[in-house]
């Protein structure tokens, strides 16, 4: 929990003493940090940790879902660049509100960049567009 950021810590049900101890441990370095970690462990042993464990699992699961989504979007992007119009139809089935013309333009540019061994700017733009579509979906 000491490694988590402030936003993530806010999502975990902690009492004020434990939260203060964790925030202090985040500021301390070296030996003092080790002692503070021991204090946090001692505090946790005297509390019901199940709600904390569930909140941490939820944070971890959300991260794993986001990583899986990014891998899926990368695969779709690669299929778009490799297969062209067939893959565009697949994207339009997944997200009917996608802009066919914009996708085809980005695909054309990505193919040119790939053939010319240029940086994959359009491929990144395709990924960003797919991510926007996925996020707008919910």
From TrEMBL:
**Which terms in the Gene Ontology molecular function aspect does this entry carry?**
rRNA binding
> One matching Pfam family, short form?
DarP
Keyword field contains rRNA-binding: yes
Q: Which domain of life is it from?
A: Bacteria
GO CC terms = cytosol
Question: Which InterPro entries does this one have?
Answer: DarP, DarP_sf
Keyword RNA-binding among UniProt keywords: yes
UniProt keyword terms in alphabetical order: Cytoplasm, Ribosome biogenesis, RNA-binding, rRNA-binding
Gene3D superfamilies noted in UniProt: PSPTO4464-like domains
One biological process GO term for this chain? ribosome biogenesis
- What is the name attached to this protein's record? Alpha helix protein
Which species does the entry assign this protein to? Klebsiella grimontii
């Amino acid at each position: 929990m000491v490694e988590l950021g402030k936003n993530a810590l806010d999502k975990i049900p902690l009492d004020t003493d434990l939260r203060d101890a964790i925030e202090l441990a985040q500021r301390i370095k070296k030996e003092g940090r080790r002692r503070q970690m021991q204090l946090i462990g001692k505090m946790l042993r005297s509390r019901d940790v199940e709600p904390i464990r569930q909140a941490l699992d939820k944070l971890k699961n959300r991260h794993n879902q986001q990583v899986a989504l990014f891998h899926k979007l990368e695969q779709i992007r690669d299929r778009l660049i490799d297969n062209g119009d067939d893959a565009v139809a697949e994207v339009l089935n997944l997200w009917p509100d996608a802009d066919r013309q914009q996708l085809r333009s980005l695909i054309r540019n990505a193919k040119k960049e790939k053939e010319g061994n240029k940086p994959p700017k359009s491929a990144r733009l395709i990924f960003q567009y797919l991510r926007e579509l996925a996020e707008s979906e919910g």
